[in-house]
C-alpha cells in the first residue's frame, strides 16, 4: 500500500465499511473488502503511533 495521509486512509476505510454494510454484498466481495479494511486499519494505526511518538519527542524537548 502506497504512503497516504491519515485523512485519505480514513475516507477509504469509511468507503469499505459502507460497502460491507450493503445488503447486496456477495461473500467473496465481503472477504476482499474485509482484507482491504484490515490493511487500511493497520496503516491508520501506524499513522497514529508515529504521531504519538512525535508528540512524546516534542514534549521531552520542551522539558529540556
Tell me the helix content. over 70%
Number of H/I helices:
2
Number of domains: 1
User: Major beta sheet, specifics?
Assistant: none
Structural class of the secondary structure composition? mainly alpha
Quickly describe the structure:
The chain has 64 residues and is mainly alpha-helical. The protein has helices at residues 6-20, 27-63.
Please give a handful of descriptors for the protein shown:
0% strand; 64 residues; mainly alpha; single chain
Structure, explained:
The chain has 64 residues and is mostly helical. The chain has helices spanning 6-20, 27-63. α1 (6-20) runs antiparallel to α2 (27-63). It is rod-shaped and about 60 Å long. The relative contact order is 0.14.
Helix-strand layout with pairing:
Layout: H1 6-20, H2 27-63
Helix pairs in contact: 1-2
